[in-house]
Design brief:
By secondary structure, the chain is an alpha/beta fold. Helices cover 45% and strands 21% of the residues. It has 14 helices and 17 strands.
Length: 379
Amino acid sequence: MRCSGKSPSAWHNRRGRWTRSAARGGDEFIILLPEVSGFDAVGDFAERLLATIGVPFSFQASRYDLSASIGISVFPDDSEDVESLYRHADAAMYQAKLDGRNRCRFFSAEIESSTRGRHLLEQHLRSALERGVFEVFYQAKVDVERGIVIGMETLVRWRNGAGELISPADFIPLAEETGLIIPIGKYVLLQACQDAQTLNLQGQSIAVSVNISAVQFREESFLPMVKGILLESGLPPELLELEITEGVLARDVDNTRDSLLELKRMGVRVAIDDFGTGYSSLAYLKRFPIDVLKIDQSFVRDMLTDRSDSAIIEAIVKLGQALGLELVAEGVETQEQANALHANGCTVMQGYLYSRPIPFEQLCEFLRSGLGAFAKPSG
């Protein structure tokens, strides 16, 4: 049984339930259970272990809540040698993490196949980074009141050996887990700033927004990296907007606030991406220096047929207006959606109705072609 969590403590033999505990890393350890009566007994033990780890505790007037992910392999059903048992438990533990963390999973042949595929994808990801084959695409943000493009969101793409684009959903989570998101994110931010500065020097001062992973944001080198890239690219800081998710705000509140304040001192704008889909604490909007709220496309998609989604969008717009925040609606695909958003008071939109994500050269052509003369929505 392999466990991963926030606690680095080793476990000890208690009442003969296990005989040995070995630390495998800062937040990982192994538990050996001798002479168990069956799978149910192992599963019951794992669930009790999760419950024990999950009991909140206080230290120096602060409350801490821990969680763990447990992967289980059984001798001799899964393997008859130690290394394979360990590898299988490791694969099951990663599956527990992928399934949402704070749970246990038994090893299976399907997990082994998935793990091999994951390792292969990681190798290809590292190779792609070394060869510099990631591509940066942009999706226009349109001010429908003025009928012009006022910004562009940066989106990373990876083209495989067959020339096919791999969806970010297939490689970004792995990049975050392996830490590869750090160099990938730096590459994307530098390219985005350089492209935005190219437009700026041509007289088109269009702000560029870049998604920042929680893994990137927590790195000590993050703020110096942003400063260095702004200097290297020459982009005015006010033309850079960094998008973070609500989950970033919920972690280490004090340090997060300090980092956001430093970004503001640089002149960089901050947007909350996918607002309404995460923690959605209104206190964040008061405590943190936020400039923009992005209405998630999941609400926009069904706003015309689902009264709940429509009500959520209306509430977010009113909240943003009351707090003096800018609003951007994502995933706008039809004129009817644009009309409804405009009627609610949201005037900046992005989505397939206006432009799909496109390479920089196509974006420049898009801007030159006069396609900025968008029809103003009714309502």
